[in-house]
Amino acid sequence: MKLYLAPLEGITTMTYRRAYERNFGGVDRYFTPFIVNKKLGAREIEGILPENNPGQRLIPQIMSNRAEDFIQVAKEIATYGYDTVNLNLGCPSGTVVSKKRGAGFLAYPDELDAFLSEVYDKCPMKISIKTRIGLEDENEWENLLSIYEKYPMEELIIHPRLRTDYYKASIRMEAFAKAVEQIKVPICYNGEINAAEDVMRMKEQFPQIDRIMIGRGVLRYPYLFLQIRGAFEKETKVVAAEQISTIEMSQEELKNSIRTFHDELLADYQIIMSGDRNALFKMKEIWCYLGDSFEDAEKCLKKIKKANHITDYKIAVNELFSLNLKTF
Ligand SMILES: Cc1cc2nc3c(=O)[nH]c(=O)nc-3n(C[C@H](O)[C@H](O)[C@H](O)COP(=O)(O)O)c2cc1C
After folding, report:
1. Which of 82, 94, 179, 298 is spaced 20 to 30 A from 106 at the CA atom?
2. Confidence check: pLDDT of 259 > 50
3. If you measure from the C-alpha of residue 233 to the centroid of ligand 1, how many angstroms do you get, rounded to a whole number?
4. Rounded to 5 degrees, what are φ and ψ at 212?
């Protein structure tokens, strides 16, 4: 099973990915959050520079509805040594959708078809697509699939929700099953994977699926990829005697890894961001997810949220790390 870390704008930054790779790793592909301009800005260049993303197989993601712009930025990305880019057809945010981008582009299937035709014809790079199943009606999916199946995409990553489902409504598994039946290129599943068992269940239901992308599950439980690998190792009984399965890692070991990951992330953000306030803002956003790893964390999380200075923040974080990790 190939495991991908989903792109999350503002969260899975170069800094996050680097700290994650150093402390956990086990990711087959990382994706950058979407790049929306025709020309890369200084921050976007910094985010994709290979030396800033050591040890990662990184796929830059582009969000565009103009073939010319897509090809231009893809070519610029290629100059930094990349051979694959990903097209975002899933972002549900109002400002994006109103510009006919992200999931908004799905509402214009003829234009999308023309865009893909030009892009696959003229872009010298491999292109994968990350998509939702439509804008507001599941019936849109059939037509979208008939478009997708025409193009030699590197892989099709499907988050089986409509734009109107945002990130909360139930996953529409029937639509995903339809794609698995119809689409010939490799399909990657994405959505609501929070435990190794979720992956095992997917594998049972769709044995042909060999790649899964996880976003919030990994932000909540940063050791999730290790647990998934452990579960597969256990199942196939290929664990070498000296290899300790991560599933057997003690609470203390897991907690220490999260602690080191956290401390490195904070230190890096303090260096990179202008001022501790911005670094604090970034870390608080991460705790919205990471807090789920800990038992009875509400009180400590409130203190973290309230902290205005790095010293208060560190005190609150120390308290939180004295709590137990949730067990599964
Ligand atoms: C805050 C936030 C930012 C996101 N940014 C992006 C993005 O830049 N590009 C993208 O393709 N998806 C983005 N997503 C969607 C995720 O990549 C993923 O598809 C979604 O969270 C569902 O997967 P999950 O249930 O494993 O988290 C974002 C999601 C969230 C919650």
Report:
1. 82
2. yes
3. 28
4. -135, 135
Decide: 262 in ligand 1 pocket, CB within 6 A. no
First-last CA distance in the chain: 21
In the numeric block, which tokens belong to residue 279? 């670094």
List pLDDT tens digits, range 18-47: 999 999 999 999 999 999 989 999 999 999
Looking at residue 247, its pLDDT comes to 54
Q: Count other C-beta atoms under 10 Å from residue 152's C-beta.
A: 9
Cα dihedral 285, 312, 300, 328 in deg (nearest 10):
60
Decide: helix, strand or coil at residue 112.
Answer: helix
**pLDDT for residue 239:** 53
237 Cβ partners below 8 Å, 6+ apart? Answer: none
Q: Does the model's pTM come out above 0.85?
A: yes
Beta bridge partners of 23: none
Which positions ≥6 away from 178 have C-beta within 8 Å? 141, 142, 145
For the chain, the structural domain boundaries read 2-236, 250-320
**Ligand 1 close to Cβ of residue 8 (< 6 A):** yes
Quote the pLDDT of residue 218.
98
State whether the beta carbon of 286 lies less than 6 angstroms from ligand 1: no
CB neighbours of 94 closer than 8 A, spacing ≥ 6?
A: none
Contact present, 171 and 160 (Cβ < 8 Å): yes
**Average confidence score pLDDT of the chain:** 95
Token pair for 320: 């939180």
Is ligand 1 within 6 A of the CB of residue 92? no
2-236 in CATH: which number? 3.20.20.70
- Cβ partners under 8 Å of residue 328, min gap 6: 195, 196, 197, 227
Taking the centre of ligand 1 as the mean of its atom positions, its distance from the CA of residue 12, in whole angstroms, is: 10
